[in-house]
Specification:
Length: 306
């Protein structure tokens, strides 16, 4: 079963060419309900390609299927692997072959989760073009942008140690390590001095054992020394250690750079009886990923519940 990626995007106002977060969520449920009553031709938008929206209802909740209509001039064929027979697909004037993305609007923050069916399926930019093209929200122009999680570098202050760190630093950042004396800064700087214009990925892991607590404290101290630098690194994450006087030790993996919020999910295409369930499976995958990442999503779009 193939893994597919769920990505989350924020829909914002693009008035005057400047992207601005909207103060309240748009009525996406109403939008989808109204859309379902409109003839299919009125849900189609012509741009570089033709896109059309349809509705999938699951557990009494509407979700958007955005399709890219394949160009009638594309050559499409089907092969039978057993007989090796090749058959060309002929597209009639009244039919269209579709590349489909499943899109679920979340109930907060004007966030949409998207799972494309294949590489040719509509992306978030396709959704942006389509939303503006159908002019349902005619009082504003919309922009769809990735939801970016905040750096969690502030969590370094509350940790008692670090058991593992991974830092990927580009060559243009090496000069900022010159006056820093900690172990991490020194190791990264020496690699740059020895090998020139390089990208360095450094991974340090401290196993449990005698003396490991002091080592973890020192690793955290070294990480704190370059915390202002790692927020601009290509990649930086750490497994931080927290000691609660009234409870057991715990560890948490934190991201130290801003990053898009995504999730990998396995999506079955058929059930045990051979019936197609790929759309429902995709909806399930998107909604479960939204639950898993809800705190990060809310924080990223300033939709934290008080």
């Amino acid at each position: 079963m193939k893994e597919r990626t769920v990505s989350f995007f924020e829909i914002v106002s693009a008035a005057g060419g400047e992207a601005r977060r909207m103060r309240s969520s748009l009525e996406w449920d109403t939008f989808l309900a109204d859309l379902s009553q409109v003839p299919l031709a009125q849900r189609a938008v012509e741009s570089d390609t033709q896109m059309v929206g349809t509705i999938a209802t699951y557990d009494m909740q509407d979700h958007l299927l955005l399709h890219r209509v394949k160009d009638p001039g594309e050559w499409l064929s089907v092969v039978n692997w057993d007989t090796e027979d090749l058959r060309e697909l002929e597209q009639s004037d009244r039919e269209g072959y579709l590349d489909t993305s499943v899109m679920c609007f979340l109930p907060f923050g004007n966030i949409v989760g998207i799972m494309p069916g294949n590489r040719s399926s509509p992306s978030h930019k396709g959704l942006e073009t389509w939303l503006n093209g159908i002019r349902y929200f005619s009082d504003r122009r919309l922009q769809v942008r990735p939801v970016v999680a905040h750096s969690e570098v502030e969590r370094l202050k509350k940790a008692t140690g670090a058991s593992r760190i991974e830092v990927k630093l580009m060559s243009n950042k090496m000069g900022e390590l010159r006056n820093r004396s900690g172990g991490l800064a020194r190791s990264l700087r020496l690699a740059g001095e020895d090998y020139g214009e390089i990208t360095v990925t450094l991974v340090i892991s401290i196993p449990r054992g005698r003396g490991s607590q002091s080592d973890r404290e020192r690793l955290l101290s070294d990480l704190n020394e370059i915390s202002d630098l790692v927020t601009g690194a290509e990649r930086a994450r750490a497994r931080l250690v927290y000691v609660d006087p009234e409870g057991p030790e715990r560890t948490e993996l934190v991201e130290l750079v801003e990053h898009s919020i995504t999730a990998k999910r396995r999506v079955p295409a058929t059930d045990s009886d051979g019936n197609s369930i790929r759309i429902l499976s995709a909806v399930d995958a998107i909604l479960s990923a939204a639950v898993e990442h809800e705190d990060a999503l809310r924080l990223a779009v300033d939709a934290v519940e008080m």
